[in-house]
Amino acid sequence: MQTEELRNFPKVELHCHLDGSLTEKAVRRIVRESGYNMEVLLDSMRVREDARDLADYLSCFANSLPLLQSEENLRIAAYELVGQAAADGVIYIEVRFAPMYHRKGGLTQTEAVKAVLVGLEEAEKDFGVKSRLLLCMMRGKTQEENGETLSCALQMREYGVAGIDLAGNEAAYPARLYRELFLRAREKQMPFTIHAGECGNVENVRDCVEMGAGRIGHGVAIADDGEMKRICREKGIVLELCPVSNLQTGAVKSLETYPWAKMREEGVPVTVNTDNRTVSNTSLFKEWQTLAGSFGPVDAQILRQAAYYAIDAAFLSWAEKESLRKTLRDRTE
Q1: 294 to each of 47, 276, 307, how far by Cα in Å?
Q2: How far apart are alpha carbons 288 and 297 in whole angstroms?
Q3: 167 with 217: CB under 8 angstroms?
Q4: Model-level pTM greater than 0.85?
Q5: Residue 300 and residue 288: Cα distance in Å, rounded?
Q6: Which segments of 65-108 does DSSP mark as H helices, in order?
C-alpha cells in the first residue's frame, strides 16, 4: 500500500490519552502569552531515547498536566487532538483521561469532564470524526478519588462518556486491588477497559478478564500464553496494542519480537493504537508504518480487519457501530 493510501485509510483508535497527546498546535494556543520556550516545552513532553521502563515514560506527563488545569485549555486540547486524528485518517476515536489530575486550578472532576466533552463535540462538527470519552481511574490513588471518577462517568454517560479505565503503574498496583470498583461498574452496566499486561504479568490480564473487562489496554504479556489467547478469541476480548509505546516502555524488547503479527494470525482480536501521540512522537499512520517496516506490507485487508475489531469493541450502541461499519465499507470496498 502506498504511503498516502495508508495515511488516508479509515482507521479506528480505541486507546489514546489526552494528556499524553497534547498537540503542538494545542500547546501553542494554550501558552501563547506565557513566555514559555516552546521548543523546550514540547521536547519535555516527549519520551527520552534512553528511557528504561514505564516509570520513565510516565514521567513525561508531569510536563503536560500543568497546562491542562482550566476548562478552556482542556477544551482546546480535546479539540486539537481530534483535528490531528482527522489528518491521520481516523473516523472514530476514544479519548481517555483522568479527571482527578485536572483539579489544581479549582475544577471539579465533573467540570473537567464537561470541558473535554465540549472540545470533542466541537471537533466532531468541524472535522467529521466521531469521538467518545473514557475516564481513567488511577492506580495508587484512594478508593474515594477513584470512586468519584466512576460516579462522574456514570453521571456523564448520556453526554459522551462511554466507559472507564484503570491506568498507572501496573507493576506496583495490580488490577485486582480495584475489584470492588469494577464490580460496581458492572452492576451499573458501565463498560470498561483496563491497562494490563504491559509489564510482563499475564495474571494481571487474567484478573481483568475475570472482573469483566471487555478490552485490555496493551496486553502484550499474553503473547506466549495459549490459554489467555484462547479466552480472548472465544470471548472477543480485544487487545489495544500500542506498538511504539510498547517499545519505548520496554513492554517488548524489540520490534522483531512484537506479537502483533503472530496474534493476528492466531485469530486474537488485536487493534493498533497510539497510546500517547505526543509522548511517543507518533500517529496512527506512523504506528502502521512501524509494523509494516518489520512485518512486511500492510494491505487493505489487514487494515480493515483491525478497524472491524475496533468497531466491534468500541463502547458504542449497536446502531452507532453499524454506522461506522457502513462508513468503513463505503470508503474501502
Answers
A1: 22, 21, 20
A2: 10
A3: yes
A4: yes
A5: 12
A6: 71-87
pLDDT along the chain (333 residues), means of 10: 91 97 92 75 80 74 90 97 96 98 96 98 98 97 97 97 95 93 97 92 95 96 96 97 92 93 96 95 95 91 96 98 97 89
Tell how far CA 273 is from the center of its chain.
Answer: 7
Centre a 10 Å sphere on the Cβ of residue 320 and count the other Cβ atoms it contains. Answer: 16
Output the DSSP codes for 231-272.
HHHHHT-EEEE-HHHHHHTTSSS-GGG-SHHHHHHTT--EEE
Q: Which residue has the cell 484462547?
A: 230
Cell triple for residue 285? 499512520
For residue 158, indicate whether it is catalytic. no
Extract the C-alpha cell encoding 111: 467540570
CATH: 3.10.20.310, 3.30.160.150, 3.40.630.30, 3.20.20.140. Which one for 3-332?
A: 3.20.20.140
Q: Are 75 and 115 in contact (CB under 8 A)?
A: yes
Nearest Cα neighbor of 159 from 110, 100, 98, 89 is 110
Domain ranges, ordered by start, for the chain: 3-332
- Exactly one of 94, 170, 198, 287 is catalytic; name it: 198
The Cα–Cα gap between 251 and 197 comes to 8
